[in-house]
Design goal:
- The chain has 3 domains: about 60-390, Catalase HpII,  Chain A, domain 1 (Beta Barrel); about 465-560, Hemocyanin, N-terminal domain, CATH 1.20.1370; about 565-730, Rossmann fold, CATH 3.40.50.880.
- It has 19 helices and 21 strands.
- It has helices spanning about 10-25, 65-75, 170-180, 195-205, 210-215, 260-270, 275-285, 340-345, 365-380, 460-470, 475-490, 495-505, 510-515, 540-545, 580-590, 640-645, 650-660, 670-680, 705-720; strands at about 55, 90-100, 120-125, 140-150, 150-160, 230, 235-240, 245-255, 290-300, 325-335, 360, 450, 570-575, 595-600, 605-610, 615, 620, 630-635, 665, 690-695, 700.
- α11 packs across α13 (about 510-515), α12 (about 495-505) runs antiparallel to α13 (about 510-515) and α15 crosses α19 (about 705-720).
- The protein starts with 11 loop residues before the first helix and ends in a 15-residue tail after the last helix.
Length: about 725
């Protein structure tokens, strides 16, 4: 066989040539942006990419903005098949019912009749991670509600934080690209703790207020059932008379807003990455239906400019001290999906899904979302007919000429599919406003076509300072520690320094506390800057004359804690030889208070009490941990306690719960177990036989103490959720 006759796979020279040829072929598609101008995909150079094209600096975004549409379209179509953002979600069905008629403020029918329960589907989600990421990462959370009203579907698509990172939607692709895994390494997953995000954030001072919320405990909720929701943007209510008011939406959980601690969140990501999803599912299955109260803040149109911030600025909130919340109804989630993909994954939200009586404003972030949400659903479903998927279908009749296409399920009758027509007797007809036809709010719009931001959007620090001022000391401590973690992962020192300069403008002491943990000294040139003395223009100076407050206790979870034991999870640690009578009394009291008690032991199976009764174990140490419970109870029983003294898992369970500031209760011999687990020299030995004592959330009782009193004090400790004054104990080995 001569050289030319050799099989191709045997010719190594040919293989090398082909490999080189492939590299040469690919080379033409590689680009190096160094020293190059930014362009559109058509090669047109871009001279401004920070603001969308608007009719006046506070006007609506214009459809002709080809750069914005191209930029947003690319982001919306980057991920197949999961959502680009909010990919990991959990859903539930339920209903919404108003407390009273809101007809004075809006003609939306579902808000006008207290006797009507409107069906809803809610999707809670993380923002950054993929579908396979963990539930408990530090992140903003989506809080999207689809109301199936008699007038059509209305979507309130919000987050668990009332503000956002950016002011104009044209920056959303940049935000998402920066916070997603870095494109060269595809790391890290579901985390903002890396260079590209903080590089972007440090160069965008408008993100500072949102960063404060994301670094706070708000970003690691204990449960979706214990998480607030916000509409973020300013919308409009319009009544039958045509009078419009600005409106902000708030969801408040009836059992209060609570968080994890960071150590718990990280451990849960490994122990149970489905923690929040499982918690929601199990609560509904058990009949502990999550409930949320919907409240609104209403502002008359004539008061639009009375504040020291712009109502159209999505990086700002309206302090409740200036505009109190008005509760208008409640939502109950009472049914889990039958099929995750068909419902939770295929549900498609859009802030432009409106009903008569509710309208949008010229908020430039909201304006961009009105385009982006439909576009991204087109990518996910590969069809405009995603509205015909059962979870997305309205409950009211749907009639239009929107044609055929992939996934079309409606079977249209007749030969007419256009308007106007006479062959179909002009049907479907136009609906006058009196018959429920949607009419957009009439607002005068004028201005030059311009890529610019309203000067009233220029204050980026005042509300970040307000947030910091409003927190309790434990909350501030957690926020600083979160900044140590996030910025501690940033390798580029210049990025850390730049972000520290932004934090200094929030509060110098806050910046110093952050600096102490990230190896950066506060630059000397910052020391001469007083808080808030950043460059101001005439408009921002004028805004500062408006209504304002220095702090808002309403933004603090600790200041607004709802004390309840309802649906709290309590671990009962036992081994053979436990006191069954005490267990049954305390367990009964816990369940009567609405708490859920689970029996935890070294191994699954049955455990025998000191008097011979058998009790089934719910979870073994290897499958659970203190991080999955809100409180810990160790019943008396000499044999049981002695066994746990020799079990590393049991000792770790107790000390970890103590470290995380959770309520702990024990009696009799169990007191010595606490002292062994804490290794702190904590001495409960002085507790005599007839006393019940509570010290920083640790409830102890002598063997002859009153069981009802003991259980009552333990339940009171559970109602407080956390006992933050225990955080001073830094030597807990957990």
């Amino acid at each position: 066989m001569n050289e030319e006759e050799k099989p191709h796979h045997q010719n190594k020279t040919d293989f090398k040539v082909n490999e080189d040829s492939k590299n040469q072929q690919l080379e033409q598609f590689r680009e190096d942006p160094k020293d190059q101008f930014m362009t559109t995909d058509q090669g047109v150079r871009i001279n401004h990419t920070d603001d969308s094209l608007k009719a006046g600096s506070r006007g609506p975004t214009l459809l002709e903005d080809f750069h914005f549409r191209e930029k947003m379209t690319h982001l919306d179509h980057e991920s197949i098949p999961e959502r680009v953002v909010h990919a990991r979600g959990s859903g539930a069905h339920g209903y919404f019912q108003p407390y009273e008629s809101m007809a004075e403020f809006t003609k939306a029918k579902f808000l006008s009749n207290p006797s009507i329960k409107t069906p809803v589907f809610v999707r809670f989600s993380t923002v950054v991670g993929s579908r396979g990421s963990a539930d408990t990462v530090r992140d903003a959370r989506g809080f999207a509600v689809k109301f199936y009203t008699e007038e059509g579907n209305y979507d309130l698509v919000g987050n668990n934080i009332p503000v956002f990172f950016i002011q104009d939607a044209i920056k959303f692709p940049d935000l998402v690209h920066s916070i997603k895994p870095e494109p060269d390494s595809e790391m890290p997953q579901a985390s903002a703790a890396h260079d590209t995000f903080w590089d972007f954030a440090s160069l965008m001072p408008e993100s500072t207020h949102m960063l404060m919320w994301v670094l706070s405990d708000r970003a690691i909720p204990r449960s979706f059932r214990m998480m607030e929701g916000f509409g973020v943007h300013t919308f409009r209510f319009i009544n039958e008379a045509g009078k419009a008011r600005f409106v902000k939406f708030h969801w408040r959980p009836t059992i209060g807003a609570h968080s994890l601690v960071w150590d718990e969140a990280q451990k849960l990501g490994g122990k149970d990455p489905d923690w929040l999803r499982r918690d929601l599912w199990e609560a509904i299955e058990m009949g502990n239906y999550p409930e949320f109260e919907l409240s609104v803040q209403l502002v008359d149109e004539e008061d639009e400019f009375k504040f020291d911030f712009d109502l159209l600025d999505a990086t700002k909130l309206i302090p409740e001290e200036l505009v109190p919340l008005k509760p208008i109804g409640r939502m109950v989630l009472n049914r889990n999906p039958n099929n995750f993909f068909a419902e939770t994954e295929q549900v498609a939200f859009h802030p432009g899904n409106l009903v008569p009586g509710i309208d949008v404003t010229n908020d430039p972030l909201l304006q961009g979302r009105l385009f982006s949400y439909v576009d991204t659903q087109l990518n996910r479903f590969n069809s405009a007919n995603f509205t015909e998927v059962p979870i997305n279908r309205p409950v009211c009749p749907v009639h239009n000429h929107n044609g055929a296409g992939f996934m079309k399920m409606t079977i249209g009758k007749g030969k007419v599919n256009y308007w106007p027509n006479s062959l179909g007797n002009g049907c479907p007809m136009m609906a006058p406003e009196s018959a429920g036809g949607y009419v957009h709010h009439q607002e005068k719009v004028e201005g030059h076509k311009i890529r610019a931001r309203s000067e009233s959007f220029s204050d980026h620090y005042s509300q970040a300072t307000l947030f910091w001022n409003s927190l309790t000391e434990p909350e501030k401590k957690h926020l600083v520690e979160a900044a140590h973690f996030e910025l501690g992962k940033v390798e580029t020192i210049a990025v850390r320094e730049r972000q520290l300069a932004n934090f200094y403008k929030v509060d110098p002491e806050f910046a110093r506390r952050v600096a102490a943990g990230i190896g950066i000294e506060v630059p000397k040139d910052l020391e001469v800057i007083s808080t808030g003395n950043y460059e101001e223009n005439d408009a921002s100076k004028q805004m500062k004359k408006g209504a304002s407050v220095k702090e808002s206790p309403a933004v603090s979870m600790e200041r607004n804690k709802i004390e309840t034991a309802k649906s709290r999870k309590v671990a009962i640690l036992i081994e053979d030889g436990f006191d069954s009578n005490e267990v049954m009394q305390v367990k009964e009291a816990l369940e009567a208070a609405g708490a859920q008690a689970k029996i935890i032991s070294k191994l699954l199976g049955k455990r025998r009490s000191s008097t011979g009764e058998a009790m089934e174990v719910d979870k073994s140490h290897v499958t659970t941990g203190s991080i999955m419970f809100d409180a810990v109870y160790i019943p008396d029983g000499q044999q049981s306690i002695q066994a746990m003294k020799q079990e590393g898992d049991a000792l770790h369970f107790i000390s970890e719960a103590f470290k995380h500031c959770k309520p702990i209760a024990t009696s009799g011999n169990g007191i010595a177990l606490l002292e062994r687990a804490f290794v702190l020299g904590v001495n409960f030995a002085s507790n005599t036989s007839g006393e019940v004592m509570s010290h920083k959330g640790v409830v102890t009782a002598g063997s002859e103490a009153d069981a009802d009193e003991f259980a009552g004090q333990f339940i009171d400790a559970i109602k407080k959720h956390r006992h933050w004054d225990r955080e001073e104990k830094t030597m807990v080995p957990a």
